[in-house]
């Protein structure tokens, strides 16, 4: 069981409260596909991913980014119970989607950079440290049911 | 592989950093120590408090070395040869995580904090590739 201090919970919710889930989600997924192009292997049916401009403008990327970050929001609501919250999603990513959990770590780090770009100096080192812990724990929960 | 466009973008970003080298370096290290406490094990001899002279000095050194790498992107192996030796034989920091993932990531967070949306996906990609190339060269002589 991961322990979250009051300060950590505060740092998480104060940032999350200001996040535009649709924009941030779209941006994070687009950056994943741009910076680590091999991740495009999971999105063959997304249409045009041929350039950064195409990826950023791709409506399927935007929609999926929003879905992923919305799900992240569920994790934030259930910090004390992440493994259970993500149990089905973990099975899905293993059994149906066949996604190497390393990709969860990549996306987590990309999300941190997106937040840093949006919040600037307000994304302090303590804030970053807390969010690194959060994305790590989420990635771990998503990988938990792999076999 | 760094394309000509990547190199141009890295140079552009680096121009924005020059003049703030000490700040960027110090903040990168500070963020790394906060987010990844095990990295502190390489600095038992340092005062790691916020604003410490040692962090500022070391941060400035790291950024200066990266600046040298930026000037020599066509020949990183040669430009970083001495640093490669240092990291392989003296410092022996874990080559698989330390420079390539942790330091690179924290440097990029600092750049994103300071550049905001000017830290575009294209620039993000170029910097990530550049740091990856640097880390690769630094790890060359480990074994």
Automatic annotation (TrEMBL), chain A:
Positions of the Globin domain: 3-147
A GO BP entry: hydrogen peroxide catabolic process
Domain of life according to the entry: Eukaryota
Molecular function as annotated in GO: haptoglobin binding; heme binding; metal ion binding; organic acid binding; oxygen binding; oxygen carrier activity; peroxidase activity
SUPFAM superfamilies recorded: Globin-like
Keywords noted in UniProt: Heme, Iron, Metal-binding, Oxygen transport, Transport
One Gene Ontology term, aspect cellular component: blood microparticle
Record family assignment: Belongs to the globin family.
PANTHER family the record matches: HEMOGLOBIN FAMILY MEMBER, HEMOGLOBIN SUBUNIT EPSILON
Subunit structure: Heterotetramer of two alpha chains and two beta chains.
Functional description taken from the UniProt entry: Involved in oxygen transport from the lung to the various peripheral tissues.
Name the UniProt record assigns to this protein: Hemoglobin subunit beta
Gene source species: Tyrannus savana
Phylogenetic classification of the source organism: Eukaryota, Metazoa, Chordata, Craniata, Vertebrata
Name of the encoding gene: Hbrh
TrEMBL record, chain B:
Gene3D superfamilies xrefs: Globins
Pfam families: Globin
Swiss-Prot/TrEMBL keywords: Heme, Iron, Metal-binding, Oxygen transport, Transport
InterPro entries associated with the record: Globin, Globin-like_sf, Globin/Proto, Hemoglobin_a-typ, Hemoglobin_oxygen_transport, Hemoglobin_pi
Globin domain span: 1-143
GO molecular function: haptoglobin binding; heme binding; iron ion binding; organic acid binding; oxygen binding; oxygen carrier activity; peroxidase activity
Keyword Glycosyltransferase listed: no
Classification via CDD domains: Hb-alpha-like
One of the protein's GO biological processes: hydrogen peroxide catabolic process
Keyword Metal-binding: yes
Gene Ontology cellular component terms for the protein in this record: blood microparticle; haptoglobin-hemoglobin complex; hemoglobin complex
Its biological purpose: Involved in oxygen transport from the lung to the various peripheral tissues.
Family, as annotated: Belongs to the globin family.
Assembly information from the UniProt record: Heterotetramer of two alpha-D chains and two beta chains.
Name of the molecule in the record: HBA2 protein
Organism: Tyrannus savana (Fork-tailed flycatcher)
Underlying gene: Hba2
